[in-house]
Structures are given as structure tokens and as C-alpha cells.
User: What shape does this take?
Amino acid sequence: MRIAASPPLLSSSNVRTLPIRFSSFRRSSPSVPLTCASFSATPPSCSVWLKSVSSTDKDIKVFGSRTKASSMAEAVTGKGKAKVQVFDSEEELKASVAKYTADLSEKVCKERASFSVVVSGGSLINCLSKLLEPPYINSVDWSKWHIFWVDERVVPKDHPDSNYLLAYNGFLSKVPIPAGNVYAINDALSAEGAAEDYETCLKHLVKLKIVSTSEASGFPQFDLMLLGMGPDGHLASLFPGHPLLQEKEKWVTFIKDSPKPPPERITFTLPVINSSANVALVVPGASKADAVGTALGSSQNPISLPVQMVSPEKELVWFLDKEAASKL
Assistant: This one.
């Protein structure tokens, strides 16, 4: 395995080897991003639309009005349905994302020894910042968290395009998640090799029951996916019109012709995303308004965007600010 020459290398004493094709490294100081294959309050009132998505034709019907975010939990749940929250500011959005995540973490951690969380890149990491503040920084049981990436660019860990580096600098270096519970890709491999290696990692963790299995699909079932969305409606590295949207068998696949640079990436497939227990789509900013309008606006809109194909097994929640929701 190749380790990047910069930043400073981790010493061999920081490495423990797992019995599969990936390695686990302990976290060093926040100023030194890891370069290894694997690591191990009441929300504000908001404008809310409750959207029911047909499990057959995916039509979306508006049937709600202005209410408090806290009143939504019992209103719409279940596979094929979405809950949409619109906040006046990004700060209010962040506060609601933090409470939603912390509440789900508490619930899962009472039931099991692990809480599996998948994150994306982009603006998502910044939107987790309230988890770094009281009360959550002290109340969340970080020791049970296991962190995964829904996609990653095939670049070194210290490269500006690395989703790992973004998460490390903005979140992971600031919370006491055990280093062995953070699973990054092996950036020494090709895109195809890194995808195969990450899938091998996931299968090992499923056998260990760190990650659950969906009884409905047989794919891994993560407790929570915290995902962003691109201005074109892509999520993970699944882009509009790309053949990878049709992948039905693999857990993790690769792309070498990404329409957004860098071109080489690995990504979870749609069956894995949709086998998740819960998905939160965290989408702030005016640049996302067109895609949000397409995905959640008229019930007559055809399924043209990858984000419209998201349908987790329990709950889908959209967190929008008013700019992102301006075309609804």
C-alpha cells in the first residue's frame, strides 16, 4: 500500500492490520490528515411542506402547510414518503440537522452497539457544525459511531478534492469517534480496485454486524445517510443520465468519466442508498433551487434526476433553506 509523502507519514506503531484487504490507522493530530486506506435544543420554527411520494410512479403531492419542525415526526414516515423542512437561514437548518442526527444516534445507540453513518462531501460537512457544539458534543455517544463515505474522489487523502480531507478538517478531527471506526478508501488503488476494496470492507463489517443487512433487499443497511445534492440533482457520484444509475448488483462501483472533476471516483450504488434506514438530504443554497424545484415541485415532473430516485426503507427528510426552496 502506498502512503502519500505529504503530510508527514504516520509511524508503523500507529497501524493495526485487519484480516482483509484494507488497513486501519489511528488518528494523528488534527493538523495531519490521515493518508491510510481505512480508519478505523428544540429546533426553530420553519416553513414545512409534507410530500407524499407514490411508491409506484413517484408523484409528489403537497398536503401540508406552515408548522413547527418538531410536529413533523409523526406526520409522514415510511418508505416512499418524504418530509421536507424549509428554514429561514442556514444556521437554523444546521441546528435542525444536528438535533435530528443526535436524536437518531441516541435511539439507535440504545438498541445496538454501533451507529453507522454515511456522509458525502460538498456543503454537507459544514452543515454538521452544530454537532460540534454543546449539548451534542458532550451528549452524543461518539464511541458507537462508524463513519463511511457515500462516494470519494480517487485522489490522495491530502488532496484538496478529497472528501475524506474535507470531513477530517471540518468534523472528524473535532469529535472523539474512535479512529478505527472511520473507513476511508484505499487511495493507492485504481478507481476499480478502490471500489472493490471498499465493498470488501463493507462485507466484512456486515459479517461482524457493525453494519446491518436490509431484510427487504439483502444490501447493507446503514442507520443514517447524510447526503448533499449537486446543482444538477446528482448525489454521491451518480449523475443524471449516467449508466451507473442502472447498477443493481454491486454495493460500490466506480466512475472514470465523471462530468464533474475529478473524473475518477468510487460511489455507493442506488440499491445501497435505498436500503438505508434513514436518509437526510441536506441542501442549502440558491444554486440548488432548480434541482429542488424539479425534484419536489410539480407532481407532473418526470424522474430525471438521481436525487428523485432516493427512497430509503424508513424515512427521507429534506433539510432546505429558503434559497434552495425558492422555486417550490
